[in-house]
Write a structure and sequence with these properties.
Layout: H1 2-6, H2 11-15, H3 18-30, H4 41-48, E1 53-56, E2 62-65, H5 69-80, H6 94-103, H7 107-110, H8 112-115, H9 128-141, E3 148-152, E4 161-165, E5 170-176, H10 181-187, H11 195-199, E6 205-212, E7 225-230, E8 236-240, E9 246-252
Parallel strand pairs: 5-6, 6-7
Antiparallel strand pairs: 1-2, 3-4, 4-5, 7-8, 8-9
Helix pairs in contact: 3-4, 3-5, 6-9
């Protein structure tokens, strides 16, 4: 327990060190730093205090990451306590936010799933690449503030949704290639693990985004599912609703 707590800064420490807070905010989003602690004072502080740990790549180059996902979520929570009210005037609905975030995706960030990543565990879920890119895009879109709460559980324990949007009652679930889509849909329905949030109105709106490079095999009767179909190289995509109707035109992503 002592070792775990050593990796958790107190709120006042971050408030007293704005440059360190901003650096940690970027690591929450990017998951890793490849900087040199000797030339990056904020990284040096985080490493010395045990808030980040070093790992060696194959070429013996160190990278700096959070020790566990729990450490990352703790820092995410601390750094989001003073987040301003959600900008509903910019994104009135969960679809507005989600579709705007997808337009900010970077093809290079999506291609990581093809070549593998030294910065993420080999056992990561298939949808992790899209979760990470969605998180980054929302961070950029929302003024570099941490509005997304990762693996949110609410007060009714029993499930973890990919993202809850702070200042709203919105939940976002992300899939790849329709993996276990029926199970994910069932979580929001009567008797499902997420249904207590809807009953308590902790969550009022939600969306399931299925990212893929092939056309969905069939229509869905569940209107909270949306399909994002990418070109082979991730430079373009087309949105579809659950009935496989196109939503707008194809969108080209900038490198």
């Amino acid at each position: 327990m002592h070792g775990f707590c050593r990796g958790l800064p107190a709120k006042y420490m971050l408030q007293a060190n704005p440059s360190v807070s901003q650096f940690l905010r970027e690591i929450v989003v990017d998951l890793v730093s490849t900087d040199d602690p000797n030339s990056n004072p904020a990284l040096n502080t985080c490493y010395r205090k045990g808030w980040l740990q070093a790992e060696l790549l194959e070429e013996n180059k160190p990278i700096y990451i959070f020790s566990t996902g729990i450490h990352r979520r703790y820092i995410e929570h601390l750094l989001s306590i003073d987040t301003p009210p959600f900008p509903f005037h910019l994104f009135p609905t969960i679809e507005d936010l989600s579709f705007a975030a997808i337009r900010e995706f970077k093809p290079a960030g999506l291609r990581v799933e093809q070549r593998g990543s030294a910065f993420t565990p080999a056992t990561r879920p298939l949808e992790a690449t899209f979760q990470n890119e969605f998180y980054r895009a929302c961070y950029e879109l929302l003024g570099k503030r941490l509005y997304l709460s990762s693996e949110w559980t609410g007060t009714a324990k029993g499930g973890r949704v990919d993202f809850q949007v702070r200042g709203t009652r919105w939940a976002i679930e992300i899939l790849r290639d329709g993996d276990n889509i029926d199970e994910h849909v069932a979580r929001f329905q009567t008797g499902g693990r997420y249904f207590p949030w809807l009953q308590a109105q902790e969550i009022q709106e939600y969306i399931i985004l299925d990212f893929r490079r092939t056309q969905p095999p069939k229509k869905s009767s569940y209107n909270r599912v949306f399909y994002v179909v990418f070109s082979e190289d991730y430079t373009m995509y087309q949105l579809f609703n659950s009935k496989l109707d196109r939503i707008g035109d194809s969108v080209a992503l900038l490198a």
